[in-house]
């Protein structure tokens, strides 16, 4: 599950702030709407926190192993929910769709219904802007480092998903069914790429995972895994790497089902309550959720075989050995130095020993002082190469004076990587 922008790199104000008037009204409306079905939300107040932005404050002490929230399954928005509403006509019978796409289309349609939507209190509470790299301006995107752009487009191919939607609209047009049954506006006027991008990232940053078996079958052809759901109010919990929770689907004595989160750590009264989205490094957090965590222990700076070749001439034999044994996969600098794959790859790249001795060194005897020196010297060259690369990125990116919050996050992430390289240098 996810989060909109974190104000981690703005000037910090070390006090909690009330939500803006309109936002506060939306949150109160959401709580009122949910309260009759979910009493546990009464323990929390939506609040703007320094560093993390909007989150949930507890009005009392919360103990270890206490239930944070117990949301009825009927309050989750799943693909089955979509199949029961008018927007289902947009999903062609001979085409399969992933759950994220289906939920995104649902949000666009329900949002345009306004107060006529059953889900209006929830949709009205959703953020309109996200700070993932996709929300950088066109000029900013051109300056993003390759490792951010490539990862972003690989993970989130929004254009491809939107094209499926356009195919559906064209089919409906031919049948003269391209009109909203509620307001008679053409569906292609309601469903735009801008709206689709917004809805896609609502789902991406705020959905929860559920067991596929808990999602009822529908007439829509859905790609596996069909395991996403939107969870009103629950999605206000922010992420903290030190938080620990357990998630479960439970059934009470009346056969009612609930999505339940239990905390494994305590929280003091008036503090922010966190959950844990999973063991994610800062690149994933930024691309998927629009924020990152300074000093994240999972962060590393990756380098590849081309970086090695920029610093040393690799023999064909050495290159083949590294690649065939997959030592080139995930070679990184950590705050503590080199990871295992990096050490082995740099040993192979720098050694003068014959190939027959490589496996003996790697899996048998330890490296000699001479081996360590060669690995160290080559590592230093690559480290400076990567640092200069990141400094060049920063130099180009700093030319944009008035930039989006998404772009500010990218700048801060690169500075964080430079800091990792500086710390790694001390420990190689």
From TrEMBL:
GO terms for molecular function: protein-lysine N-methyltransferase activity. Pfam families: SET. InterPro entries: SET_dom, SET_dom_sf, SETD3_SETD6_MTase, SETD4_SET. Residues 37-278 form the SET domain. This is SET domain-containing protein. It comes from Vespula germanica (German yellow jacket).
